[in-house]
Specification:
Monooxygenase; Co-chaperone Hsc20; Helix Hairpins; disordered N terminus; 228 residues; mainly alpha
């Protein structure tokens, strides 16, 4: 027998024997180039500087822009849908902290554009302002029309003398008809780019809208103030 004994190797643990062989670790190479972070871009919302008019904010619902390139009437349902989509993308909470002020300014401009275009009177006033004619805040912009002024005074008396809302039904219907007529005249005037006629009719429409607001806000005994 050899004086040297062969060392006995202990049998492997049953658990270790059934372990899968270790996977070779892939070699990692460190890139020598640095990745430049892309600057934040607003998600397809209209650019604040690029929008030249209120119409520019709504390319889907108002693709042709303002009159005379497009009609004066607006599809209000389409305008509202696009407005909500734009506000969702421009909301400050959707932007990083570094871009919140810009997002707030953009959101405010979109909101102002929508409110202006939503109503025929403010829309007409805005379109005239694009042509250098200010009638929205011009207290001297009045209609030299005795018949119209008489209608306005009679409407005021009827509203003040009303005992109940039912007394204003006929006045309301007649005034709504006058508003529709004015809107039709404005459509034709802006289509022809007739600024003087558009200005005169916008002032008229302001009277009818004020009467409408007085009827809508009627309370028994409440004095009526018709701004013009």
């Amino acid at each position: 027998m050899s004086p040297f004994r062969t060392p006995q190797v202990a049998p492997p643990c049953i658990f270790c024997a059934n372990l899968p062989p270790p996977h070779p670790q892939p070699r990692r190479f460190q890139s020598t180039t640095t990745t430049k972070e892309e600057p934040f871009k607003s998600p397809s919302a209209p650019d604040l500087a690029a929008s030249q008019t209120h119409y520019s904010f709504f390319p889907k619902s108002l693709p042709a822009g303002p009159p005379p390139h497009a009609p004066f009437p607006i599809d209000l349902s389409a305008l509202k849908r696009e407005f909500l989509q734009l506000q969702a993308r421009a909301h400050p909470d959707m932007h990083p902290q570094s871009d919140k002020k810009r997002a707030e300014a953009l959101s405010a401009r979109i909101n102002d554009a929508y409110k202006t275009l939503q109503h025929p009177l403010s829309r007409a006033q805005y379109l005239l302002s694009l042509r250098g004619v200010e009638v929205a805040e011009d207290e001297t912009a009045k209609v030299d029309d005795a018949e119209l002024l008489m209608e306005v005074l009679e409407a005021r008396e009827a509203i003040e003398d009303a005992e109940r809302e039912e007394d204003l039904v006929a006045l309301r219907e007649g005034n709504e008809g006058r508003i529709r007529i004015s809107e039709g005249v404005l459509e034709e005037a802006f289509q022809r780019d007739d600024v003087e006629r558009a200005k005169s009719e916008t002032v008229k429409l302001r009277y009818w809208v004020n009467i409408k607001e007085s009827i809508d806000g009627w309370e028994r005994g409440k004095p009526v103030v018709l701004n013009h």
